[in-house]
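forwarding from the other thread:

> can someone predict this with zinc ion?

sure thing
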Amino acid sequence: GHHWGYGKEDGPSAWHRQYPVAKGNRQSPIDIIPNEARRDSTLGPIFLKYDQCRSLNIANNGHSVVVEFDDSDDRSVVLGGPLDNPYRLKQFHFHWGGKGCEGSEHTVAGVGYASELHVVHWNAVKYKTYNDAAAAPDGLAVLGIFLELGDDHRWLHMITDALYTVKFKGSATDFKGFNPKCLLPSSLHYWTYLGSLTTPPLHESVTWIVLKEPIVVSEKQLGMFRMLQFNGEEEDQRMRMENNFRPPQNLKERIVRSSN
Ligand SMILES: CCN[C@H]1CN(CCOC)S(=O)(=O)c2sc(S(N)(=O)=O)cc21
Ligand SMILES: [Zn+2]
């Protein structure tokens, strides 16, 4: 059927037709205004237990490039902060702009970053399957990490070197031994709020944990993501994968909390 995308006809402003929750009360991303975030002393630090994580593959799903993990046990989890129990690492992926344009989904006081990394975790304590969790109000916890342009990132090449193997939608290749810990900034201070998936089906199932400190990558490294294509290898129309971000949505009756 007519699939959603990021173009003029099938992009974020059209998603509400097939996914009415797009106009819901806890949609993501949002513009985060630091001065209006509530500093909450009951908010403890987050802990990322990734040392036993097992990456499986890297894939192009026609919307982004995704690295998936073995989530058959609690070997790699995020816990603490706003979370009532550990959430299991499932995958990470990116959103980015066109050359020289902003491409993050969350913005900070109206300012976007070049890109945004999402590390997706699910509540396997309360839900039997990932699919169930993805549709439940406390089902997912996504860590958002901003990417700003500067020097080369010393570990991102492990991902950009693999991008040529997943150029087209529907391609996937083995990607073992990658630990997302190497993509974290030095500080784990964060903002947190209740939101949604930023792509269809836009389920309002995400506790967002957005790190305040960006990581730095080079324009050259980020440019490698733009070699990816939205289309499959067999499709005539070649569409460069870029600007795969949803703009900020209405905060409605929500508050953003800030870790200390
Ligand atoms: C292209 C499809 N993207 C989604 C696929 N999934 C949802 C459905 O799964 C059963 S998901 O849970 O892996 C996530 S997380 C995520 S974001 N940008 O908010 O972090 C988007 C999606
Ligand atoms: Zn995302």
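Residues 63 and 69 are 18 Å apart (CA to CA). thats all i got for now
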